[in-house]
Structure formats: structure tokens, C-alpha cells
Amino acid sequence: MNTKVLTVLEYNKIIDKLADYASSPFGKDMCMKLVPVSDLEEIEAAQVNTADAFSRLIKKDGINFGSNKNITLAMKSLDIGSTLSSAELLTVANFLGNVNRVKAYGRKERPEEEDDSLTELFEGLTPLTPVSEEILKCIIAEDEIADDASSNLKRIRREIGSTNDKIRSQLNSMINGSVRNYLQDAVVTMRDNRYCIPVKAEHKGQVPGMVHDQSSTGSTVFIEPAAVVNLNNKIRELEIEEEKEIEVILADLSAKVGLHTEEIIANQKIMTKLDFIFAKGRLAIEYNASKPVFNTDHIINIRKGRHPLLAKDKVVPIDIRLGQDFDLLIVTGPNTGGKTVSLKTVGLLTLMGQAGLHIPAGDRSELSIFKKVYADIGDEQSIEQSLSTFSSHMKNIVTILKHADEDSLCLFDELGAGTDPTEGAALAIAILNHLHDRGIRTMATTHYSELKVYALSTSFVENACCEFDVDTLSPTYRLLIGIPGKSNAFAISKRLGLKDYIIEAAKQQIEADKESFEDLLSDLEQKRVVIERDRDEIARSKQKIKELEKALEQKQSKIEDQREQILREAREEAREILQDAKEVADDTIMTLNKASQGIDVKELEKKRSNVRNKIGETNSKLTLKSEKPAKKALKPENLRLGDDVKVLSMGLKGIVNSLPDAKGNLFVQCGIIRSKVNINDLELIEDAPVVTTKKVGQKSNASKIKMSKSYSISPEINLLGRTVDEAIHELDKYLDDAYLAHLPSVRIVHGKGTGALRNAVTSHLRRVKYVESFRAGEFGEGDAGVTIAVFKEK
Question: Residue 789's beta-bridge partner residues?
Fold first, then answer.
């Protein structure tokens, strides 16, 4: 690929942005060296790498390769047996730590995930974790070695600390004692890495020791007292010993690293490649780019292509085709209309694709493999070389025609411009015809009407234009293939205020056939605009119809839901009224039974049965039809005495009072009603029975009577904590309910205590006519704290 076209099409700016996304110096360098290639297999492999990096970056956060620094020289030093410095060893350790993080990033999150093109690279990394951990354990910073790096180093530093303490202790005792009056300041200082004290110059003879320094004024001398000379000497000896031990530690660490120089160099190469590939992935995300489809038939079909260097919020996507129905595309239209941008978009996206980069275009965009891309774009006039605009363009064109072949893509901006229009148009047609005859894919921009006619009259040559809105005097930047464009010079001039008579005079200068051709183009453009407007209006109408249909369906569904809700509420209200009536009937029968012992119980049961049948019949009519799927049929072995069930035909809840017979019939206690039903008419209720109390007011001439009734009766009552009066009142009500509920016996919990409550309970039970017998609880039943009462059979 010729290097000039990379600059003309601004490919180098794309590479600069790519390098910014690399996080290591080696990765950036690899990005800067990226150039388009023409080998299809190599291009496809690079595109797959970019796509896989793109996918990984979308799924999880990116990874940094910043620790991938130049350690080649350090590895060569190790190969010849040299010792690395602490800074170099830290660089190696940080790099290996980065390798470990990158390898972890590349691992599969789930075992069933498929491998991609980057899996092998990630698996090829060797973190050498023990080596990096050993280095980081021994070296804290570039100029600091850990005490635990070796036992000998730890001992040496302990002795240094101990000796320092002795020296300070000795000097402090001198400062606070015998030499206190001779000191300039009562402090301990360091001179030439030895402990000293500041002594007044006139008293230096009073303090025996070595003078190491004096102040700038000469009034203070810094003396190392003789008492600490040996200790200072010992510290110096220990420091030398410390330096030698550090050298031993560094040599040992270097030897460990030296065993793995090949793996480290291989790691660096893989890390550099991964950094480069992930930079391509990040660039693809930045441009919202996609993987192009490549062919070798020299067919270009870019869908919604965007020039990557234009602002995202301003660039207008364009569709460009070349090479299938036509191999030469001539783009016409006014200046600043987007012709050059369209030209550069085709060239730049071709270069990006062949460099393994995703292109800012829609999915399934097609590019072809071109061995050479040539572009004559921009003004390259040169005073030094005596080249005019036309000459500079023609020089480029001569070079292009000399080297271009059928595997080339040629791009010309304003072909034939800069000279006499007639001659320029003739030259442009001849050049394009030459390229067309050789089957070279070519795209050119022009203002010449002759080239529009050439495209209309020549097979496999197509017109295109950049749309321009005359009303607003602004381009829309849309590329329209198949339609020749107008320069719109007269319309623009008129909108800008040029007098009509001048415009008319200009029109008279145009030949009749050219004016007719321009009028035809204008008429075609107007019709196209109308057709597109109508098409857009039809599309909007269709969308509006769909939205209205959807809204109507939602409204209809809402109405149906509301209707069902209203009916459901009405039926539930009716059921509650019937239930209230049932409770009134039950309580009335109970009251009559208590008040009139002479009335035949069977007669009362008959009346109660009639009430039950009437309620059941009405409930059947009011019962809502459930849309829920039917539950499984009950089996006799699934039922137990005391199970909570629902009688489906009556819509009532009850308790199983007997087990099913051979025909599946059994008795169910629904409140005071004991009904014989078939097992197929039952539904098992898994929840615990809920006891609810509902009061119904009923007015008479004398007063209002309030009655209550429990839907389910417990076989036990607990009277603990109540007074005798409260307990007897509650027990009386409970015994009535239990008897009417056909319980055979009940358990009364009153406790032992003083025996007053137990005596009151037994006395009350003797007076209750429907209690056949009672007894104290036995062992396991509660003993004397419980009384068991047995009812008479009806």
C-alpha cells in the first residue's frame, strides 16, 4: 500500500487514536506500525481478533497492560550472569503480576463457554507467580529491601538498631550531664554519617573527640565524642555488611529470574499483541463499528457508513455501492455538499478494513481486497515546484494511471478541474473511460455536466449526487446513487440576493441543450423529493395505524378486565348477603333449641336442612367460574378426619367428619350443617382453618339482638387466667357451639390452682342437659387441670 494515500485519506489520524487506546509502550508502538494488507486470510484473522476483543470488552471491564515495559536489556543481562538492580527486579515482578491479572481476565466465566481466537494467547501466558511473589516479599521499593529478605539481613539491621540506641543513650547522658554547659544546642546531629554534638567553638577543648564539621560562622563545631567513636565505627562496619548482604539477596533473586528468561520474553510478546488487539476492540466500541464482510470480486457495499473523524452527532450515514452493477461512480453536486467526504469515507473504510479494524458502518457491510488504493484529493499546488492546481492534480493522475491495475481502487476529487471547463471535461471523460475499459474500480467527484451525460450514456457507469436543500441553502449530506446532481448555482445566487435580471442573463449564456438537461435534472429532483416525502408519510401513517391498533387492543382488554372485576365484586357481595342470612338462620335455630327444650330436634334439623339446600342452590348460581386449571381429583387415601375441604358445588368450606365409603360418599361439617357429599365434589384446603367472627345486627320492636357464630369449633377451650364468672360465661357459649357442631366430646383446660375454677366448671356441667358425662383428665391428658366432657347423642 503506497504511503501517500495513507496521509491523503487521513489513515494516520485513525492510527493515532488507536495508539491512544493501547496501555503499554510496546502496544502503542505496534499500533503505530499497523498498515493495511492485501492477504485475505491475514485480514480475516485480524478482524476475528478485533471482534473477539470487542465481545470480551462488552461482557466485562477492560484490562490494563501498562506494566508491559522494556525488560529486554534486563533479560540479556541475566543471560550473561549479571545481577539486576532492585528497580529492575521490581519491574519484572510488576510485569509478572500484570501477566497474572491478564491471564485471569482471559479465563472462561462458565465451563460451557466456547473458545475464541484470543483463548490460545491467554493460555500461552506464564505468570511465574512464585518468582514475582518472592521479589515483592524481599523488595519493598526501589531503594528499600525488606528486613525479612534474609535472616542475616534481619540480624544485621537488629544490631544496627541496637547500636544506634546505645549511641543516643550515651550522647543524651553527656548532653544532660558533664558537657551540657559547653554545647551550642542540646541536640544530637549527624555529620559524615556519624553521630555528633554541637559544641561552642571556645569550649571545643573541653570535649574530647573528633571534629567533623563547623558552622558557617565558626561559632559551633560538631564533635564526635571519644566515648562513641567505637560505636560509630561498629555502625559503619554493620552498614558495609548490610550492603554486601543486599547484594547477595539481589544476586539470588536475579538467579531465580534468570531461570525463566525465555518465558518472560514470550510473555512480553503475547502481552504486546493482546494490548494491540484490545486497543482495536476499544476503537471499535468508540466508533460503534462492525466487522465487514470481505470479498475478492472488487464489490463495495457500505451500509450506513460514517466518516470516523467527523463528530458523531453531526455525521450523516451514507450508503455506497460500487463494483456490482457498475464499476465507476460519478458523484456530482454543489460545493460543501459532502462529495469529498463520501469519497474519503470509501477510501478510509477500505484501508481500515484491510488493516484489521472494524469500520463505522452497519452490519453486513461489504468491502473488497485491493492491493493498491490511489487518491487524488485536495489542492497540492507548489510555488517552489512551479505547479499550479491543475498541474499538481495532473501529476498525481499520471502516476495513478501508470501504476493502477484491476486490483486497485482509484478515487478522484474534482477530476479535470483547474483548467478550461471544456478541455477539463474532455480530459476527465477520457481518463475515466480509460479506467473503465481496464475494469478498475473508480469513484470521482465533478461539477461538469458532460460527465453526468457520460454516466447516463455508458454502461456500468453510474451517477450519484449529494442532496442539497435549496430552501435552506444547506446540504443534507445524503448520497443518492442513480441520480445526477445539480450545482444549483442559479438557485443559490438568487437566495443570496443576486438580481433576477443578472441570473436571467446568465441563463441565456447556457446552450439550449445544456439548459434543457439541467431543467430535466431539476424536474427529476423535484419528483424524487415528492416521492420520498410521500413514502415517508405513508411509513408514518402505517406506524400510526399500528400504534392505534395496539392502543385499541389495550383499551378493549382493560374494559374486559373492568367488566369482570365489577361482576366479581357484585357476586361476592351477593354471596356475603347469603352468608349473613345463613348465620342468622344458624343462630336462630340455636337460640330456639336453647329456649324451647320441648321442640323436636329432628324438626329443627329438617328446617335447617331446607335453609342449607336453599343457600347451596343460590351459591351454585353465584359461584364464579375459575379460569385456573382444575386440580387433581381427591383420592380416599388422601383424606383424614378433621381435614379442611371446600365443597365445590356449594362454595362452602368445611371439615371432614367421616371417611369415604365404597361409593366415595362422606360427611362434611360446614358450620352447623352436616352434609353428605361425594369425594369428587371436594377440594382439599392446605392452609390452616381461619376462625372468623361476624356479627349481624337484627332489629326488633324491643331491641337490637347481636349474635355471633364461629365457622369452625376447636375441640378444646382454655379458661386459664379468667375469673369464675368470665370462665362460666365463656364455657356456656362454647358448649352450645360445640354441641351444635356435633363434636362428641370437648377438653376444658382450667388448671389446678386452688380448685375454685375446677369446682365451678364441674357444677356448671351438671346443670347442662346435653352433657351426658364428664371426668377429670387422665395421665397424659392434663391430669386434674383438665376436665373431659362427653355430649349426648342426638
Answer: 746, 774
Task: Output the CA–CA distances (angstroms, integers) from residue 290 to 16, 344, 385, 680, in the order listed.
Answer: 20, 18, 43, 64
Widest CA span in the chain: 139
DSSP collapsed to 3 states, 35-63: CCCCCHHHHHHHHHHHHHHHHHHHHCCCC
* Predicted local confidence at residue 291, as pLDDT: 93
Question: For a pLDDT cut of 70, what percent of the chain falls above it?
Answer: 82
Strands 293-295 and 366-368: parallel
DSSP sequence for 114-142? PP-TTHHHHHT----HHHHHHHHHHEEET
Cα 94 to chain centroid distance, Å, stands at 30
What cell numbers appear for 167 in the block? Answer: 549511641
What CA–CA distance (Å, rounded) separates 645 from 642? 9
CA distance 395 to 355: 28
Q: What number of CA atoms fall less than 13 Å from residue 276's CA on the CB side? A: 23
**In which residue are the cell numbers 479506467 written?**
435
Could you tell me the pLDDT band of residue 282, with boundaries at 50, 70 and 90?
very high
Residue type (1 letter), 322: L
Q: What is the CA radius of gyration of the chain?
A: 51
Residue 576 C-alpha cell reads as 356475603
How far is residue 345's CA from residue 352's CA, in Å, rounded to a whole number? Answer: 10
Contact 1, 34 (CB under 8 A): no
Element (H, E) at 700: none
Nearest partner of 34 among 293, 42, 117, judged by Cα: 42
Selected residue with higher pLDDT from 403 and 536: 403
**Do residues 667 and 674 make contact, with C-beta atoms less than 8 angstroms apart?**
yes
The residues pairing with 220 across neighbouring beta strands, listed in sequence order, are 200
Residue 30 has pLDDT above 90, yes or no: yes
Beta-ladder partners of 702: none
Q: DSSP secondary-structure letter at 164?
A: H
Q: What is the pTM of this model?
A: 0.60
Q: Which triple of cell numbers denotes residue 609?
A: 336442612
Quick one: the chain helix, strand, coil %, rounded to 5?
Answer: 50, 20, 30
CA distance 286 to 509: 52
Q: Are 732 and 724 in contact (CB under 8 A)?
A: no
- Average pLDDT estimate for 614-618: 58
Please report the pLDDT score of residue 691 as a whole number. Answer: 41
Q: What angle do CA 695, 696, 701 make, to 5 degrees?
A: 135
pLDDT tens-digit readout, 206-232 = 788 888 888 888 888 898 888 888 888
The predicted pLDDT at position 29 comes to 92
Q: Is the pLDDT of residue 522 over 70?
A: no
Percent of the chain with pLDDT over 90: 22
